[in-house]
Amino acid sequence: MRIDPQKCVACGNCTYVCPMGAIYIDPVIRRATVDRDECVECYACYNGLSQEHLNPTMVRTVRKVFQFFRLRFEPEPDVCPTAAFAPEDLTWPRIVRRAFSDPRVPHESTGVEGRGTEEVKTNDVSGRVQTGEVGFTIEFGRPAVGVRFHEIQKMTMRLAKAGVAFEKKNPITTLLKDETTGEIRDDILDEKIMSAIVEIKVPVERTEEIIRMVWEVEKEVDTVVCLGVGARCDETGRENIVAPILEQLGYHPERAKTNIGLGRITNKPAAEPRTAAEPVTTR
Ligand code: SF4
Ligand code: SF4
Q1: Which whole number is the average pLDDT over 35-61?
Q2: Residue 251 in contact with residue 282, Cβ under 8 Å?
Q3: Residue 12 alpha carbon, nearest atom of ligand 1
Q4: What is the DSSP string of the chain?
Q5: Which residue puts its alpha carbon closest to atom 1 of ligand 1?
Q6: pLDDT in the model for residue 152
Q7: Distance from first CA to last CA of the chain, Å, rounded?
Q8: Which atom of ligand 2 is nearest to the CA of 38?
Q9: Ligand 2 pocket member 45 (CB < 6 A)
Q10: Fewest CB within 10 angstroms: 92, 96, 118, 172, which?
């Protein structure tokens, strides 16, 4: 995102809406400026503020006159009075920022908006997590901290070394150079994004091992990390295998969402169609 210095009148409204704190009023040029390295191209500034089309010269003059009389002329707080935002035509690799940060832009790799994955939330039709398996979502950067791919790579490399299966329909998986090493493409490693989710699954016996591994690696990662766990219910609608392991590890698992199995199964081979799936949250 860029701000047109010819149009900006330095009212400061946009500095409050940027979740990354990437907009500041440059004291030298006296205009709002975007720190491009910190900007994740989420478009919250552009979409979150109404754009008025006041004449910048007129607004600056009025503000100066008011200032002379020790008065302030400020636009409404949810408005950019001069429509000063100038979104760029993003190219690779910067465009990856927007894909992971603007929730209205679908990921090309999966066609899903937001973080680009449905996770286990649609397990009743996708059958990602089967009986005897446990699925993990490892989320980076949310809320409002952001993350760079080289930080995510610390986790993917460790998980790959442990021989986990990365979810195919996940945008981070599609950006891995090599699933056996967990390395992410070199050309995006320094790109900063709002948030991302790594998805893996393992046999249920490895639940504790993986959670302990995530605990260890997250200490080395320079952002917030959130762990989600998904498992299938039994025929009575209960989950009595993974939940006790989580409790043993000190979590108090709550049933977050339950898929009731009314959808049409889209993945082959399909899981037992009438079996529900129970994502368990540890957040
Ligand atoms: S809201 Fe618009 S005019 Fe005000 S500081 Fe931001 S870019 Fe400049
Ligand atoms: S696009 Fe998002 S991160 Fe970039 S300046 Fe605007 S609000 Fe901040």
Answers
A1: 94
A2: yes
A3: 5
A4: -EE-TTT-----GGGGT-TT--EEEETTTTEEEE-TTT-----HHHHHSEE----HHHHHHHHHHHHHTT------TTEETT--EE-----TTTHHHHHHH-TTS--TTT--STTS--GGGGHHHH--S-TTEEEEEEEESTTTT-EEHHHHHHHHHHHHHTTPEEPSSSHHHHTEEETTTTEEPGGGTT-EES-EEEEEEEEGGGHHHHHHHHHHHHTTSSS-EEEEEEEE--TTS---SHHHHHHHTT---EE---B-S-SPP-SSSPPPTT--EEEEE--
A5: 80
A6: 98
A7: 32
A8: 3
A9: yes
A10: 92
Q: To the nearest whole percent, how much of the chain has pLDDT over 70?
A: 86
Distance CA 174, CA 187 (A): 14
Cα R_g (the chain), whole angstroms: 23
pTM to 2 decimal places? 0.86
| pLDDT tens figures, 202-233 | 999 999 999 999 999 999 999 999 999 988 88
CB 33 near ligand 1, within 6 Å: no
178 strand-pairing partners:
183
The Cβ of residue 115 has, within 10 Å, a number of other Cβ atoms equal to 27
Quick one: pLDDT at residue 108? 67
Cβ–ligand 1 distance for 3 under 6 Å, the answer yes
Of the listed ligands, the closest to the CA of 46 is 2
Question: What are 242-255's pLDDT values in tens digits?
Answer: 999 999 999 988 77
User: What residue ranges define each of the domains in the chain, with the CATH number in brackets?
Assistant: 2-88 (3.30.70.20), 103-281 (no CATH)
Residues 6 or more apart in contact with residue 69 via CB below 8 angstroms: none
